Amino acid sequence: MATLPGLNDSLEPLNIGESSDQPLLVSLTVGTEWRVQVPQDARLTIKILSGIAEIFGTELALDVSYVFQGTNLAIYAVEDAEIEWTSSELITQTVSGDTNMPFVYNVHFALEKMRVSSFEGPRVLIVGDSCTGKTTLAKTLCAYALKIKAYQPLMINLNPQECIYSPPGCLTATPISDLIDVTYNTWGQSMTSGATRLHNKQPLVKNFGLENIHENRELYMTTMRSLADSVRLRLSNDAAIRRSGLIIDTPAMEQLSDDFSELKEIISLFKVNAIIVCGHDDSLAMRLNGVLPVEALTIVRVPTSSGVVKTDDVYKRALQRNAIREYFYGDSRTVLSPYTIGVDFDMLRVWQPKSALNTNDSPEALMPVEVNASNLQHAVVAITYSSRRASADEVLKSSILGYALIMDVNDAKKKLKVLLPVPGRLPDMAMILTAFRYLE
């Protein structure tokens, strides 16, 4: 996973702030960052008293309180700024001037020139190894695009481990048409059934269902091709998005094939015209320069910030769990009321993506799943638009209506409890079992 939700200065001694309910002050000079690690059970409240400061390209309003919990963040001073902050728990903080923001500014202005010089906006592919700042860069470039004009860059996420306006296991394309809520530890509010403070982001979602690409590379490429087809249709019908361009975030390079075959197909499918390489050195950029058609591509490198946090599996699971919970229940500010229904076993038809972890030799990409507690207890399932009686091939090509959570399975009574995000009957549609579980 990339550096979302934040940055941390790992090259300098860290200062440990004392827990206090009294407001404290930190002063930032222009071009410096205040990097903070907020524990999961702690809350940090900040307020910009003067100056201009931003988080991932989104400017913070003056005299407005922002509350953060269980996250890592970096506040960048566009001009000299004074910040008031309060935390009842111990937090780790440091101020650093070692930042890659000047390079990010250069990339943004280059993309802006491409937008004003053509009706076809930039189509940018961001690549790099794990924890090199890919997703942070994508988020910042989207936020900067909104500052210039009424642009709507299409943020495309090709990493199924990320939760960008969707539950985990999805590939998404989302028009970023309004501010990104900086207080969320991912990208902000997903498309839910409740009212939100900011404009709802409405993603186009394709379900991959697995967490790791290597479990089924063929299914991953099929899902990505389907997303690319939908993106092409959206671009042909929406001049604003076509002019704004695409920002494409990719999985870590170690998850992709060594021969760059998947990367080459991504470039072809989305008609990429610029590649940004996030890395500590030029090695990856030079390799790409040798195998890609550089006459039709611009390849540049953005140095990785010294404050990138190396996220572990525990942190990834926490982000994924939060995304699933938010999909059904909302959050502390936007509480949703999901609907629990009881259904019989024979009302479900569930398929499962073929995985390298399965020993089944079936040539089908989807395999039928027996409805029982061992298979479905606490499972997140995707509800397709295909009929419950549809074939595996039809289900595979179907779009996703939404997601449901199998809360309880009673094998003796042949009954299930299913959690839906909205009231109503269980749709008579085929379902696809994902690799993700959620236990309340």
TrEMBL record:
<keyword id="KW-0539">Nucleus</keyword>
<feature type="binding site">
    <location>
        <begin position="131"/>
        <end position="136"/>
    </location>
    <ligand>
        <name>ATP</name>
    </ligand>
</feature>
<comment type="function">
    <text>Required for endonucleolytic cleavage during polyadenylation-dependent pre-mRNA 3'-end formation.</text>
</comment>
<keyword id="KW-0507">mRNA processing</keyword>
<comment type="similarity">
    <text>Belongs to the Clp1 family. Clp1 subfamily.</text>
</comment>
<dbReference type="InterPro" id="IPR038238">
    <property type="entry name" value="Clp1_C_sf"/>
</dbReference>
<dbReference type="InterPro" id="IPR027417">
    <property type="entry name" value="P-loop_NTPase"/>
</dbReference>
<dbReference type="InterPro" id="IPR032319">
    <property type="entry name" value="CLP1_P"/>
</dbReference>
<comment type="subunit">
    <text>Component of a pre-mRNA cleavage factor complex. Interacts directly with PCF11.</text>
</comment>
<dbReference type="InterPro" id="IPR038239">
    <property type="entry name" value="Clp1_N_sf"/>
</dbReference>
<protein>
    <recommendedName>
        <fullName>Polynucleotide 5'-hydroxyl-kinase GRC3</fullName>
    </recommendedName>
</protein>
<keyword id="KW-0067">ATP-binding</keyword>
<dbReference type="InterPro" id="IPR045116">
    <property type="entry name" value="Clp1/Grc3"/>
</dbReference>
<dbReference type="Pfam" id="PF16575">
    <property type="entry name" value="CLP1_P"/>
</dbReference>
<dbReference type="GO" id="GO:0031124">
    <property type="term" value="P:mRNA 3'-end processing"/>
</dbReference>
<feature type="binding site">
    <location>
        <position position="33"/>
    </location>
    <ligand>
        <name>ATP</name>
    </ligand>
</feature>
<dbReference type="InterPro" id="IPR010655">
    <property type="entry name" value="Clp1_C"/>
</dbReference>
<dbReference type="GO" id="GO:0005849">
    <property type="term" value="C:mRNA cleavage factor complex"/>
</dbReference>
<dbReference type="Pfam" id="PF06807">
    <property type="entry name" value="Clp1"/>
</dbReference>
<dbReference type="GO" id="GO:0006388">
    <property type="term" value="P:tRNA splicing, via endonucleolytic cleavage and ligation"/>
</dbReference>
<dbReference type="InterPro" id="IPR032324">
    <property type="entry name" value="Clp1_N"/>
</dbReference>
<feature type="domain" description="AAA+ ATPase">
    <location>
        <begin position="120"/>
        <end position="298"/>
    </location>
</feature>
<keyword id="KW-0547">Nucleotide-binding</keyword>
<dbReference type="GO" id="GO:0005524">
    <property type="term" value="F:ATP binding"/>
</dbReference>
<dbReference type="Pfam" id="PF16573">
    <property type="entry name" value="CLP1_N"/>
</dbReference>
<dbReference type="InterPro" id="IPR003593">
    <property type="entry name" value="AAA+_ATPase"/>
</dbReference>
<dbReference type="InterPro" id="IPR028606">
    <property type="entry name" value="Clp1"/>
</dbReference>
<dbReference type="GO" id="GO:0051731">
    <property type="term" value="F:polynucleotide 5'-hydroxyl-kinase activity"/>
</dbReference>
